[in-house]
Structures are given as C-alpha cells and as structure tokens.
Amino acid sequence: MKNFTVIAHIDHGKSTLCDRILELTGDIEKGKHRELILDSMTLERQRGITIKAKAVRISYKGNILNMVDTPGHVDFSYEVSRTLSACEAAVLVVDSSQGVEAQTVANYESARKNNLLIIPVLNKIDLPGARPDDVEDEIRSLTGDTGEIIRVSAKTGEGVETLMERIIKDVPEPEPVTGDLPSALIFDSVFDPFRGAIAYVRITGGEINSGEKIRFLSTGGEYELKELGYFGVAKMLSVKKLSSGEIGYMVCGMKDLADINIGDTVTLARGGVKKLLPGFRQPKQFVFAGIYPVDNSDYLKLKKALDQLQINDTSFTYHPEDSPSLGPGFRCGFLGVLHLEIIKGRLEDEYELSLLATRPQVEYVVDGSVIDNPIDFPDAGYTQVLEPYVKCTVITPAEYMGGIYELFEEKQGNYVDMRYINPRRVILKYELPLREMVEEFYGRLKSVSKGYATLDYEHIGNRQSDLVKLQVLIHGKQMDALSFIMPREDAQTEARRILSKLKDLIPRHQFKVSLQARVGKNIIARKDIPALRKNVTAGLYGGDITRKRKLLEKQKKGKKKMKQIGNVGIPPEAFIAVKSYGD
Predict the structure, then answer these.
(1) Spatial separation of the C-alpha atoms in residues 459 and 286, rounded to whole Å
(2) Which of 90, 362, 419, 483 is found 20 to 30 A from 117 (Cα to Cα)?
(3) For the domain 183-268, what is the CATH superfamily, name and number?
C-alpha cells in the first residue's frame, strides 16, 4: 500500500494527469469517459478548477495505491493540508510553459514541512510554448533537488508510465503510528442522506473491522461500525477491514455531521489507543459578507440551502441578520473571496436562488472585541484597532516589477524580499492588510502584469491600524446599511465616490435631498439632489405679477414643510450598487 497526492498551482494540469493515470491503470477506459473524472462538482467543471480533494484507490503492476487530487487555489489550501496528512509522497506538477508559480512554492513548502517525498513533474511538454529546460532550472532552484525531473504530457499521456514506475520504486510504505493498536485519523467528512455522516480516514495503526464498536476520542462518542470501505473511481466500495496505511471511509449511522471532528482520532471502544493523534485545526474564516435573496420570499429556501450546503462544507459559517435596506439574510464567513464566490455560485446553481452578496469585509479587533460587520464598529471612543495582515508571494516576469511595486505601495504594502528564479522571472514578497485584497486586488495585479503574475498569501496575524467607520446620512437620517470601515486617510475620497453614486441613483423629490458622509461627529463630504419644481404659474396669462409671486411663495412654504416631514424614497438599486460585490 502506497499513498500519494498530486499538488500544483491552479491550472497546471493536476486533474488531467490523474485522468491519464486512471487510464494507465485500467480503472477507466480511454476515450469512453468525461474529462476530469475526479472533478465531479458542477462548479469545478464550469470554472476548470478543483474545489474538493478527491481520493481514489488504484492498482498498478500488483501494487495498491491511493491517489489524491487536490485543489490549487490558495482559498482551498486547507483541503491540501488535510490530504498531506494522509500521504507519504507528493507529485509536484509544474506547467512547462508557465513555470514555477506562487502556489507551486506554497504547496512545495507544505509538503516539505510534512516530510513528504516530493516527485517533481514537468507537465504540458507538448505545448508549442513549452520551455522545459528553463522550467527545470526553476524547479531545481526551488527544491534544491539535482535528481531526475519527469517530463509528461497529461493531455497525450506521454511520460505517465515513467511517473508511475517512479512512484512504485520511491514512495515508501506507510509506517504505523500506533503500532498494532487500532487507530485512524479523520481527514474529511461528508453527509449522505441515506447513510448519515461519513468519516474519511487514514488508518494509522493496527486494523479496524466492520461491525466493531469504535470510539471518537475528542467527543468520547461510541458507535457500532456499520460499514467500512475505500474509494473507487465512481463509487465507494465496502470491505470487511482496513489495515494500517490504508485510506477509506467509516459509516456509523451518525445523523449529524457535527458529531465528526476533522483531525479526531478513531479507535476501538475496548483495547484501543488512549491519546489523540496529532491532527490539524479547523480552517478559520477570514472574509465575511452578507448573502441576501433578491426576492425576500426566498429567505426560508436560502436558509434550508445553507443548512444542506454546510453539511458537506464545514469551512464556512453563517447566522441570520436583518438589513433595513436589503431585508432578511445571513452573515457568512469564508476562507477567502474565491470561497465566497464558490458558495454563492453553488447556492444559485444547485438551489436555483437569485442572491445578492454584500461587499466582503475582514475581521477587526476593536479594544478586544471581534467585529466582522461595519454596523457593529464603534463611531468613536475606541483606543485600538487590530486588523489581519497577510504575507503575499508574487511571481512575475521582471519587466512588470515596476507596476507591481506601485500597486503594493497604493495598497499600503510593506516590502519584505525579492529574489530572481532566473534572469527573466522574480519572486516578490510583501506584507499587506487583508482588507486590501478582498475586492479588486487580484484583478489589478493581473492587469498591471498583463496576466502573467501569480499570487499566493498566508495569514501572519493582526496589526494595529488607524481605521474609522464611514457613515452615510440621507436627508439627515443615518443609513446603518451604508457603513464602511476604511483607513482614516482614504475616508474623504471614498465618501465622495459613494455620494456621487447615490446622487445618480436616488430619484429627485419635491424637496431638496441632502447626502452626507460622516466620520465620528464630523461631516467630511456632502452632495445635494435638487428638488423637482412644478410650474405653478403655467395657468396664468398676463396680469399682475403679484399673483405669480403669491403662488411661488405658497409653493416655497409647501416644499419647506414637505422637507421637514417627508420621507426619501430610496430604490433598492441604490443600496445594491453601493453595497454589493461582483455582479
């Protein structure tokens, strides 16, 4: 039994390579299956990315192997960390035309920290723009490995057999962590409506048999093991037992996914291990946004959809909130902006909902209190604000360094390091407030580098910042839904932009409507929407001017009274345009 995972930067060909391996082992028939067989989710196939890690057991030349395909995007790095804990080796795939990129470096470092054997693979050697010799030098510069780098084409299958021979020859057999004492580490879980919660496990010692009574050490819960098995290409296959080193699943009849903790240790209820195995922590949410149904009558449908979605993806959180402008909805926490887009896309595609997501926010610590919603941020009277920072790794062609320097300076980035991979490509490292990355940063980076720069980031903790709460007042009334957290130095510029947008979207009334932006007690920007004026003198023909003046004076008094007691009709589009994220 040998276990290996496939890791790479996004779109470097991991899933396609897994398809060619499955064809080589005979688990799928060439030309008679859909492409990217391990990417089964609709959004995975639409976007061309892997979102959930997939495990499959294969057999090649008498050897049993467990292969795991992993996501490449930074927002799903927690999926990669889980699979690394279940494997002895990592196949590091690098595109021979794109070269080493940001998440190539991040995935390599993760595999190295987990003491995995790393097998470098140069993919897409069949492309006209391939430069295998140059990219080999980049890989050696990254890994320091002077050994063979396998060249493959995941599209044509060239070199895949050589890769499999290397895996069989060099990947070590898994060593039991607890010896002969039965134990297993939970690295993932899913919910099946017919079988209940299912734990994905790596057996770390002894053997576990179907029908035995097992215990989950972190909760102390004891259950009868109703089904045990491993992952085939198309379905789960039940077996009587799993032994040390094998990857598989357990079904115990649990009705709630919350009964399974990722990183927990499973053992026998009698005669098993007593201490928890080193596991891993649940992912922390860093980006927060409100999700609202466009039609308020879909609120209960949205709640049910979120309940069902979280059963299979515990990495996002949500709780109800009510917005004066957008109605009832949910405040949700995500691992990153792409994670937000994926969850929103799944809700719309799989549950046929039309949704609005508000602008993403990060989590602040204000005088010890954690705040993820601008409405809860204090107007004044606080002494310290801490915000999350990230360390960014950017790999770019050297000719675009100037534009990237300017972008990081604009976004309040702090320079950390720079080194050349080769004379043409450079690695830049910066520290940056996370709030600067949650909306347009990635798009701006691609723009200044003409699409060639790649980005990876890691969270490095909270730092003190001078932030304020920007509030919008319409006709003297404070709009809680239009509150924003931003650096003090940017507040006035942003206030003018927001008020200009509102002025274009709010219709004119019979009285003048004032739009104001406030920080604390100070008004920092103002715009006015002029009143509509009815021509009250249109019916008069000639005669004394006094009559016209009386009518105009009467109109003026009426407008003044209307301004005092009138309500401003604000269309939903105004709130949506200012608060919404994406489309």
Answers:
(1) 9
(2) 419
(3) Translation factors (2.40.30.10)
Task: Kindly state which CATH superfamily the domain 470-579 is placed in.
Answer: Elongation factor 4, C-terminal domain (3.30.70.2570)
Residues pairing with 93 in the sheet? 8, 121
The pair of structure tokens assigned to 263 is 């990183």
Summarize pLDDT for 387-421 with one digit per residue, the tens. Answer: 999 999 998 999 999 999 999 999 889 999 998 88
In 163-206, which ranges are E strands?
183-192, 196-205
2-8 vs 89-95, strand pairing mode: parallel
365 has pLDDT over 90: yes
**Beta carbons of 238 and 248 less than 8 angstroms apart:** no
Number of H helices, E strands in the chain: 13, 31
The two structure tokens encoding residue 75: 């927002």
* Distance between first and last Cα of the chain: 48
DSSP lists the bridge partners of residue 174 as none
DSSP letters along 101-136, please? -HHHHHHHHHHHHTT-EEEEEEE-TTSTT--HHHHH
- Among 228, 230, 237, 245, smallest CA distance to 86 is for 245
- Convert the pLDDT of each residue in 319-346 to its tens digit: 998 877 678 999 999 888 878 888 888 8
What CATH number belongs to 287-358? 3.30.70.870
Q: What are phi and psi of 100, to 5 degrees?
A: -65, 130
